[in-house]
Design a protein that fits this description.
The protein is built from eleven helices and eight strands. With 320 residues, it is of the alpha/beta class. Strands 3-4-1-2-6-5-7-8 form an eight-stranded mixed sheet, sandwiched between helices. A hairpin with a 5-residue loop joins strand 1 and strand 2.
Length: 320
Amino acid sequence: MALKGISRLHYAIFAKVPTLVYNTESIQNQTILSRCSKLMTEKYYPTWYLFNGHLQTAMLSLLNEYHIPEVPATEYYHREVFTCADTGQVSLDWAFPTSLQQAFAKSYRSHRSMSKEWGSTPISSGSNSSTKVFSCGSNADPTSRRNETHRTSSSGNRTVLLLHGLSGGSSELYIRSCVEHLVSHGWTCVVMNARGCEDTPVTTPRVATAAWTKDLGEVIAHLRGHPDAAFRRVSPHVPLVAIGFSLGSNVLVKYCGEAGRRGETDSVGLSAAISIGNPFDLSETSAHLTHRSRFRRLVYNGIMTQGLIESNKKVRSNSY
């Protein structure tokens, strides 16, 4: 009873409707708000015992460390290894709604006996989930059997491309929870794991940075633009939405901005882009973490630096 009383008191004091900052003259914004009316009316309040960002971050890290909760939709990702134009590699971890899972499994089983031929071997991801891997990309033969396994996947289904944060990947709790929610509503999800992240090998001197958007552009073109519809991942008329978290959202917004600056908005390949927790000014963010607070320098900067070190340890044995 005491905890319930504290929760109600916390709600009464802190719950409020978030302030939205947007262009009120935009017809597109008006349309979005008319369809998502709760954005203007529903109150938000944090869990009462996680009343600031530090506690929320610590709890997320703890839950992620022990893989709590288990997320059924991502128990099995289906990994596609994509080779970029410079021979660097990113990995695409796919998760499908129930309506497509059986079709994918049937297609996968039909080629399982040829696993040595087209490289479909089980690998383990950071979340202890099983991942089936197959390869494609600019250096792959488009007529190879290795592409056949995805014919029945998401070509005609609305799809979300998710971009993780610094040294993260498809096993992160915030990614898995988002995938679970989207899959339960009928969306196909694909998580783009950057070079060196989530057991993705580093095959070139280039690693993932916020300044490098070409990998994202090539992946989107790969999802949208295969000339043979049988091998196309997402048909041109089907919605393809990208969601970026933290550093991933910075890369996403930069990619969209670069296309806009070149006047090539029609070639972006996305129906919409959603930026979450974007460190828009990376220089200011870096200074905030390293120079303006001993606590942030020792805790946040230290942990993120250690994460990058561990990530590089996993892939440094790969030669290029």
